[in-house]
Design brief:
Blueprint lengths: L2 H5 L4 H8 L10 H11 L3 H6 L6 H14 L5 H9 L4 H11 L5 H13 L3 H14 L2 H11 L6 H13 L7 H11 L3 H14 L2 H4 L3 H8 L4 H14 L5 H10 L3 H11 L9 H16 L3 H15 L7 H15 L8 H15 L4 H10 L3 H10 L8 H19 L11 H17 L5 H15 L4 H11 L8 H12 L8 H14 L5 H7 L5 H15 L18 H5 L6 E6 L2 E7 L5 H12 L6 E7 L3 E6 L25 E4 L11 E4 L12 E7 L1 H6 L5 E8 L3
Helix pairs in contact: 2-7, 3-5, 5-7, 6-7, 7-9, 8-9, 9-11, 10-11, 11-13, 12-13, 13-16, 15-16, 16-18, 17-18, 17-19, 18-20, 19-20, 19-21, 20-22, 21-22, 22-24, 23-24, 23-25, 24-26, 25-26, 26-27, 26-28, 27-28, 28-30, 29-30, 30-32, 31-32
Amino acid sequence: MSKRQNDYYGLIAFLVLFIGSAVFAQQFPDAEKKILELRDTRNATKIQEIEVTGNTPAQISALIALANIADSNSVPYINSVLQNSNDNDIKAAAYFTLGHINSASSRNLLFSLLTAETNSELLEWIILSIAKISYENTLATILGLCADKPELWSAAAKAIGQFGVRKIKSERSLPWLSEILKKSSDHVVLNSISFAFFRAGDKTSLAPFKEDLMRLASFPDENTRIWAYTSLGKLQDASLVDFLIEFFEYDANWKARVSIANALGNQVIDLNSPETGKIADALLRSAALDGSAHVSIAALQSLGRLFAKSDTHNPIIIKIKQDIQPIITEVLVKPVEPQVKTEAIKTYAKIFKDEVKDELLALFSSAAGYDIKSAIVSSFGFMEQPMVYKELRDSISADIMRYNAIHPNKDGSMIGSPDLAKVYKAFVEALTSLDDKLDAENKNIIRLILSEFSASKNAAITDICLGALQDSIYLQYRDETCQIMMFDYNTFVHPKDKDVMLLYIQAWDVMKYGGAGDLLKKNLKHMDYDIAKASADAMRSITGIDHTAEITAAKYKTDFDWTYIDNLSDKKIAVIKTSRGIIKIELLPNFAPFTVQNFVKLAESGFYNNTIFHRVVPNFVIQGGDPTGTGYGGPPYSIRSEITHLPFDAYSVGMASSGKDTEGSQFFITHSPQPHLDSKYTLFGNVIEGFDAVDKIQIGDIIESVTFSAEN
């Protein structure tokens, strides 16, 4: 567990006690195994029936299980536990659990406990739980209660931030933070205040607190600075440009520089203002020379946002063109990462549009790599003249002919290879950006292209195409589109094409296509619960009738392999060999046993070998674990979320999902603390070695293998 996790909320050491000694046992006692099984199958009633009196670890496990299920009918049981226990560990677990049950009964109970509880550590849990589910009037009460209690300042500030995450704000919040900032020099409190300003403030509300934010931006703690830089960017205040650029030049932390690049990119520019020239120069230096590819990418993205609508004859814009061209053509003294080059191409097209069309087409023909080619194709979506799609189509066709001559398409599939999938995806992305500018005849050509590619069996491409075909500009063709989709759907094979099948069903739902009724009704008996449930949802949307009760597939896949789980101590260190180096992760089977089991079993089967990191967001996460490399793939099943108290610190490892209980194989690693993810995603490990490798990972980098050991 990292240092910040030990400090988080000032309570992690206390929480380790409340979880109970059984958490750290190598094997789960029988009572807790039963509770974990019921947690996994979401059976709150049976959990409450288990006799746990006098068994503190089991009682705590039962409460945490109820937090995962989040059934409001559990509130009376939790209240009874509180009434009959003087054990602070159990109380803390109960308060934590109430914060996950979004109901009036849970809110009312927490509010009554706020004024009754006297233990400051327990009060922190109540405050943070209230922040997850209550409303503005409760926030005012919290601030009043904590104003003269320094031991609660950090919790109250974090509560303001968590309310802000939920878009709930109070006029008292930011002035309260400012007053506490004047009174405190404690680094935990200041970190919490900076997070709260970032999450709860907007341009207008933050303006009176500029000096406070500048102070926080000068603080030694990197996370305090990062949140403060982001808040300063919201102000769009020209007087802050010199301040931000100064920090941009010397802040040694790449994550902080990413935040400053984004803050500079949020300014309102005036091409006649010297500040605008300073911003452009600072971002261009970073784009070409920064030691972190993440910072270069953020700088290029900011340049694109700032200057996309500028007069390209302006001296500032001319200089931008001159400075970006060497990145694209790779004539710099220092070579750049491929992902920096792809971002430079997109920024180049975004700013200069049609005037660089021929230059980009030539670059497409000469480029060797398909990441670069796909970036060029995608950049055509920024063009002003939509008929450019024909030239783009012809260039792509010629390139594919050359490609197929070298790499024959032996299986007859539409896509043919991962390289071509990148180009096709970029092509349909560009088409969806251009189609609304076209005349009726060419719109129809685009529609037919999108209809063809929607059947590609590549979920990422299908999603783009179906999303575009649902647009109102294609409304007159909707019946024909849906009929084509019906034909295509019958060519899909489950489970291989499950993700595409779900996208089709969801599209019929949105388009209210009654012609799919028989197919959807048949799907109610599908062996795959996700397919059946999506079909029932679509039928309810189309007909107004709920057919959920007709689903026969089991909702949950369970794997209660306790012999395997009890022996996970032999595999507690995951060693991920990547193209950037080794990343070692300490797994947490005692907190997320079924998630760890799933991850280890998949890895031991070779599931992750030679897959890629398909998503990278600088200073947020890197994400991998999808065998298709698209972000849509995974195993043919879902596992349940396993929510714990553990915070998403820097280099925490969590399960990606599209909603509760939809996890499969995809996982992410955080770059920096992400409190808004806490208790919303399954955290099942922490990086203990290879931090530099995590920091260097870019989209397309490879997971070569995953192995395990008992010790680091």
